[in-house]
Structures are given as structure tokens and as C-alpha cells.
Amino acid sequence: LNYFKFNSVDEMYSYFNYNANNLVISGHRGTFEHGLPENSIVAMEEVLKYTKAIFEVDPRLSKDSVAVMIHDNTLDRTTTGKGKVIDYMWEELQKLKLKDAKGNVTQYTIPTLDEMIIWAKGKTILNLDKKDLPLEKTAEIIRKHDAYAWVWVTVHDVGQAKFYLDKNPKQYLSMHIRSLGALEDFKNSGLPYDRM
User: Does this model's pTM top 0.85?
Assistant: First the structure.
């Protein structure tokens, strides 16, 4: 397999400094080809058979505060369950099967964020999109695994970026800047450019 293995945060920073010859593939939720379900470890492993890649993935919160990997706030499209993710306990979610992009039921189950972070170490970068997982919970999980060299967080504004950098100044960010006003907010924030 094709792995990104960074021994330190600084090594990861160095790799992602701009270089015109350094192409990076960012896989959105892994792959949905070959009948594999999105936001699953098996889907990311499939991509890594062919190329190095980083992955944007989607943590959400179960009723009992377990961070689980599912894009939608409802279960219907990607699992055998029905209704909102937040209405289910982790024990109940574990019993569901993931569906592929065509809606076929697979043998795979919903992974937790903890499982995905443990799997990703020495293999890839996970970029955690901002869904309903509270910032504090996300920061706590990354801190627990000391995963700063292989886990990034997506932020939607300067306030979210500051939150993570206050928790750990080495946290790498993927920041949405969708307007000139947002760009000015970022420039005026004093946030470091080499953290995103």
C-alpha cells in the first residue's frame, strides 16, 4: 500500500508546504467504487492500494456521545438504519450495516472516529469535516491519540480555527474561505499561515 508516514508534526508540515511538483490526492470519504461504503476504513484502504492519498471524513455524535463516521445526519442513505444518527446509542449503531453508493447492503459496519484514527496512523491523513461533533470533543479525541501528525480539522471561520490552535498550536487545519470578507477576516486574525 501507498502510505504517508510522518514521524512528527513538523515532518508533516514540511511535506505539505507548497511545491509545484508535489501532487496530493484528497479522497472524499474514501471511495465508493467496487461496492465499498463511504466513510469506511476498507474504502480508504482500497484507494491506498493505488496511490498515496489523504481523506476528508465525517464524524458525528451518537446519542451516548460516541464519535461515529457517517456523512449524513440521518442513517437512511448509507446504512440499514432509519432516522437520525443522534437518536441512536452506539450499541444500536454497531448492529447496522453500511450501504454502497447504489444502496446495496455491505458486510461493513459504522466505524468510530477512534478506530479510524488508530487505523490511519502511519498510513494517511484524516481531515475531519465539521458536522455535529462539538469542537471540544473533536479536540479531546485528537489529543487522546496525540494524532496531530495525521489528523487535520476542517474549520468554517476564524473562531473555530482559533479554538483548535488554542488547544494545540500545532493542530493542522483545513479552512473554508469562501468570500473576500472571510479572507480579510483570516488575514486580520493573526492566525499562522503554516497551519492550514
Answer: yes
